Amino acid sequence: MNSKDDAGRGVSCTVTGICQKRIRLELTLRVTKDGKPWEGEGADALQFYVVETNSRKRVGVFESVASEGSKRVLTFLITNRGDNACLDPGTYGIAVCNSDDIYIADAVTADGISIGSEDEPVGPNNGLTLKYPYRKGCYYKVTIKPELTKGQPLVIEVRDFNGKKDLRRFVSDRKKDLIRCWYQLQKGANAKGRKNSILFLRLHEGLTADNLNAVRDRMIARDMEKLWQIHQASINPAGRKKSFRDDLQMAANLAKNRIVVIDEHVPMLDWLDPGEDFSLIQLWHAGVGFKATGYSRWGCKGAVSPMSSHRRITYATVSSVKVRDIFSELWGIAGEQIIPCGIPRMDRFLDQEAAAETKKRLLDIYPACRDRRVMLFAPTYRGRGYKDAHYPYDRIDLRAMHDLAEKKGWILLFKMHPWIKQKPLVPDECKDLIIDVGNEQIEDLFQITDLLITDYSSALFEFSLMQKPMLFYAFDEEDYAKDRGFHRPYRENAPGKVVTDFDGLLAAIEAEDFESEKVAEYVGNHFDTVDTNACDRVIDWLIEGHLPDEYRKALDAHEAYVQSWKGKRMLTN
Under CATH, what is the fold of the domain 352-526? Predict the structure, then answer.
């Protein structure tokens, strides 16, 4: 298993531990040379690849998490092998190369390899199966072969079971084939007009698309309609059930535009390949909260498929380079494609003149907020998505909240997630201090809010810039983590006090125990630039293509790195 070159002679890599960490496979290895621990010069530059068993082609890359002497800890992201894709179904091994990219060894198994954690060793014949459901009846499975015989190469099997192929599935597939053909026809017919044509594509008509509106309006304000054809469309017109005709219209909209700007997952682009002469810009609708979505949600209900519209993203925008890893995992793309332009909708939020006008407007509509401090209750939804979104109102005693508000000088505003159809039923005797403000934009409400009460929502993101306290009412933290999942530890990252029952919520409000010191730390970790120029950066950098050198060079370097190993056979002397 060792190559004949001097740098690799006598080298072996033995896997001593296998651990699943959410959507990551973590391996612990021991590296030896001539039977002795190998550390220091040469050992630090080792590279570890996933290789096809038969062809010996490199198809994925492991990242080094830590090293200590001859010990290596490696991680492999199940949802991204290194080039914005999952491993294809097949059988794989792990090969080790030296700093010159020369193969020197396969990773072999140890006797008594530990599964799950190094503290719980098990016998050598026990493997590990990682199963990730992504739709009803569909799942992606990674299996570490159970025959873990000491000294034999580690074998990884990948399978993708994408459901039963019944008549309904057959009809659906044929419709997709027709839509693909229609897309290509429309693309060819509109070839000349596509060059300077841009589409702002909304998720549902009637739901807010603040980032899309902000960038589109800024393009119009800059008189860019002279150079660009600016269009907008909805994936699901008026929120009604889509028809085949709607799908044809959507495909035509996509085909007629070289650039498409979105703020959500686009189901049609899961299976429709728009081609290389197409740019997809993601202006994600949410800031940085906690709930897992996209590929961070794998293994939970409502996860995306191995090939989803997220993989089509050309550029995406975030608030800080510090949160790139979070969104890279979410979309299953390289961090270099994620550009810290800022969040477009926050330009207006941060504009002092606009903020003053918004505050005056809201106080005129809700005059009771003038003389009392304002609590804004704004949780996220429960359920898989738009169709079954709900909130368990039985976890809130509105009369108790009213009595506390009356006692402590508060007023309570309810702003439920727009997908939640059932509104809070406020008793008549409580309506003087409890108001449903569901028709208002949440960012507008922040201008009059003194305390935000939320749970796992990304509402905390913009509100953190107000430098005001937050409370996190997480009565179902464990169940939510199992059903939906978190993309990072919840309690460690919540910028405020976390309470798990209603009595604790009341007690925290009464004592004004909000742990507000956490807010400043959150802001420092999530924002690079706080100004009103995010829309202009999106337009100049991503739409017009004037990306700053540092980001362009990073993208080029990443592409060169992927091409240096992707699909290439192992080199040996």
Answer: Rossmann fold (3.40.50)
What is the tens place of the pLDDT at every residue in 179-221? 999 999 999 999 988 989 999 998 766 556 789 999 999 999 9
Please count the residues of the chain: 573
The dihedrals phi and psi of 21, each to the nearest 5 degrees, come to -125, 90
Kind of pairing between the strands at 470-473 and 451-454: parallel
Please name the residues in contact with 72: beta carbons below 8 A apart, sequence gap of 6 or more.
Answer: 13, 28, 29, 30, 31, 46, 48, 64, 66
The span from the CA of 537 to the CA of 344, in Å, is 9
> Beta strand 58-61 with 90-97: parallel, antiparallel or unpaired?
unpaired
The C-alpha angle with vertex 488 and arms to 486 and 312, in degrees rounded to 5, equals 75
Sequence ranges of the domains in the chain: 11-163, 169-346+534-563, 352-526
Instruction: Identify residue 523 by its one-letter amino acid code.
Output: V
CATH class of 169-346+534-563: alpha beta
pLDDT score for 3:
39
Per-residue model confidence (pLDDT) at position 490: 83
SS (HEC) of 271-307 = CCCCCCCCEEEECCCCCCCCECCHHHHCCCCCCCCCC
| 210 phi/psi in degrees, rounded to 5 | -60, -40
Which pLDDT value is given to residue 368?
93
- Please determine, for residue 8, whether its predicted confidence score (pLDDT) is greater than 70: no
Question: Residue 365 is encoded by which pair of tokens?
Answer: 């509509």
Terminal CA-to-CA distance of the chain, rounded, Å?
Answer: 12
Nearest residue to 95 via CA among 105, 80, 81:
105
pLDDT digits (tens, 9 = 90+) for 226-235: 999 999 998 7
Euclidean distance between CA atoms 438 and 415, whole angstroms: 5
Closest CA to 263 of 550, 133, 458: 458
The answer to whether the CB of 227 falls within 8 A of the CB of 458 is no
Sheet strands (E) in 205-296: 229-236, 259-262, 279-282
- Give the whole-angstrom CA distance, residue 424 versus residue 392: 10
Tell me if 169-346+534-563 shares its fold with 352-526: yes
Q: pLDDT (tens digit, 9 = 90+) per residue, 301-317?
A: 778 999 999 999 999 99
DSSP 87-140: PPSEEEEEEEE-TTS-EEEEEEEEEEEEES-TTSB--TT--EEEEEEEETTEEE
